[in-house]
Design brief:
By secondary structure, the chain is mainly α. The chain contains six helices and three strands, in the order H-H-H-E-H-H-E-E-H. 61% of the residues lie in helices and 8% in strands. The protein starts with 7 loop residues before the first helix and ends with a helix. 9% of the residues are buried.
């Protein structure tokens, strides 16, 4: 019988050291992967969805100029961003034909626009530019910048005075007070607005 006695570390020392090194390497790889994955998720998923959420809040309050186009390389997020952008464009067009304060009231009160109405005393305003036909014949297209300025100023005054613009008719504006929102001072507000 021949017996050889050697220290355990001569046989297993290198294996144990390699096991330790491998363990620390795996920890480093897992940590790096988690950090990289977190960065990728943040950049490609969380940030675009956060921007879309902010855009929908702006749309809800009709602050359509604050809505920014969101881009993403992920198809579903891209589709959602395009849908939100389409909603913005649709509402911008809609705002041209329906007074903004009516739309905001509907949204704030969680009401749906529907056919119908109610009887109410209102104050109605019609504007008309004196000698507009003669001015338009004399000035031609040079009249448009002045007409645009007139409409912008009058529209601003009507809105500040809590009025609702019904329509523009040539050189005239038709507006009303006390509808759809109630205003007990509708007659005086209409007079002050000009």
């Amino acid at each position: 019988i021949i017996t050889t006695i050697l220290p355990e570390k001569d046989f297993l020392g290198e294996i144990q050291q390699n096991t330790k090194n491998l363990f620390f390497l795996l920890i480093a790889i897992i940590t790096f992967s988690l950090m990289l994955g977190s960065h990728i998720v943040q950049k490609f998923i969380v940030t675009p969805i956060s921007k879309i959420t902010t855009n929908t809040r702006h749309i809800q309050s009709l602050d359509l100029d604050k809505v920014e186009l969101t881009t993403s390389s992920i198809g579903e997020i891209k589709q959602l961003a395009n849908a939100v952008d389409g909603m913005k464009k649709g509402l911008k067009s809609f705002k041209k034909y329906l007074p903004e304060n009516i739309v905001k009231d509907l949204i704030a009160n969680k009401l749906e626009a529907k056919i119908g109405g109610e009887e109410k005393e209102v104050t109605i305003f019609f504007s008309d530019i004196k000698n507009f036909t003669n001015l338009s014949e004399i000035l031609g297209v040079k009249l448009f910048p002045q007409l645009e300025e007139y409409f912008e100023n009058m529209s601003h005054e009507i809105k500040v005075g809590k009025g609702t613009i019904d329509k523009y008719i040539g050189d005239a504006i038709m507006a009303f007070w006390n509808a759809p929102s109630s205003n007990p001072k509708h007659a005086s507000d209409a007079c002050i607005s000009r």
